[in-house]
Write a structure and sequence with these properties.
With about 250 residues, the protein is mostly helical. The protein has helices at about 1-30, 40-50, 55-65, 90-100, 100-125, 130-145, 155-170, 170-180, 180-190, 200-215, 220-235, and strands at about 70, 75-80. Helix content is about 70%, strand content about 5%.
C-alpha cells in the first residue's frame, strides 16, 4: 500500500509538473513575455499557476533545458528569444501548433523542401528490399485509409510513409529527424488533406516515390517527393479557415 501511495504521489507531481511547463511554455510562445524580459517573481508566478514554489522551479528548469528561459543570480529568470529555443522539442512543437500555427506550417514546409528530396535521392541509391517493403506497406495503409468514409488513419499512415522514406535514406540523423518532427508533420498533413480531393490527389505522387526508389532512380525519387511537398503547400494555402502564412512560404 505504501508503494502504491508513493506511486500516486509521483504521478500527481508529474501531472502537475507538465501542466505548469505547458502553461508557461504556451505563454512564452504566445508572446506573453517579450524576449529578454524577466518572468514575474517566483511567489507571484507560483500563486498564479496554483503550485508550490518547488514545483515551479522544476518547471522553470525544464524550460531552461528547452532553451526558452535563462536563469542568473540577481537578474532572475528571463525569456530567451526564439532563436535559442529547441524547435525540435516535442513540447515546443505542440506549443507552436497551438499558439503560432501558421509559422509552424511555414517552417515545416521549408524543412521538407530542404530534407525530403535529398532523402529520397539517397533512398533510391541505398534502400534495401526491407526498406522498399516498408514503403509499400505504408503506401497500402494510406490507400486503405483513403478508401474509408471518414479517412480515419490516413494522416498516421502518411506520417509513417515519410518516416520510412527518411529511414530508407540510410542516414540515421535523417531517420531521427523524422521522428523528432512528427508533431509538425501531423499538423501539416491534417491541414493539407482538409480540402476536397486532396487525399485522392496525393496517392499517385506517393506511388511514384516508391517506384522510383525501387527502380533506383535518384532523380525521379527526388522529383516525386518534391512534387508531393509542393502539392501539400498548395492545399494548405487553400485549406478552409487557414490564415495567411508569414513570409513568402507559399
Amino acid at each position: 500500500m505504501a508503494s502504491r501511495g508513493r506511486a500516486e504521489i509521483v504521478a500527481h507531481f508529474l501531472t502537475m509538473h507538465q501542466r505548469v511547463v505547458d502553461e508557461l511554455g504556451r505563454r512564452i510562445v504566445g508572446g506573453a513575455w517579450e524576449p529578454g524580459s524577466p518572468l514575474p517573481v517566483e511567489e507571484e508566478l507560483a500563486a498564479g499557476t496554483g503550485v508550490s514554489r518547488g514545483l515551479l522551479r522544476e518547471a522553470v528548469k525544464a524550460l531552461v533545458a528547452k532553451g526558452m528561459l535563462h536563469v542568473r543570480p540577481r537578474t532572475g529568470t528571463r525569456v530567451l528569444p526564439p532563436e535559442h529555443w529547441n524547435h525540435l522539442d516535442r513540447d515546443v512543437l505542440r506549443w507552436k501548433q497551438t499558439e503560432d500555427a501558421a509559422a509552424l506550417l511555414r517552417d515545416t514546409g521549408e524543412l521538407r523542401r530542404i530534407v525530403e528530396p535529398e532523402a529520397a535521392r539517397l533512398a533510391a541509391g541505398r534502400a534495401g528490399p526491407d526498406d522498399v517493403r516498408v514503403l509499400y506497406a505504408s503506401l497500402a495503409a494510406m490507400e486503405a485509409a483513403a478508401a474509408e468514409p471518414d479517412r480515419g488513419g490516413y494522416v498516421e499512415a502518411d506520417i509513417a510513409f515519410h518516416r520510412a522514406l527518411l529511414d530508407a535514406s540510410g542516414n540515421r540523423l535523417l531517420g531521427s529527424l523524422g521522428r523528432a518532427v512528427d508533431i509538425a508533420l501531423e499538423h501539416s498533413f491534417v491541414v493539407s488533406t482538409r480540402t476536397p480531393g486532396a487525399v485522392e490527389a496525393s496517392l499517385p505522387g506517393h506511388r511514384a516515390v516508391v517506384r522510383a526508389v525501387e527502380a533506383r532512380d535518384p532523380a525521379a525519387a527526388a522529383a516525386a517527393v518534391l512534387a508531393i511537398v509542393e502539392a501539400a503547400e498548395r492545399e494548405i494555402a487553400r485549406s478552409p479557415g487557414m490564415p495567411d502564412l508569414p513570409g513568402d512560404a507559399i
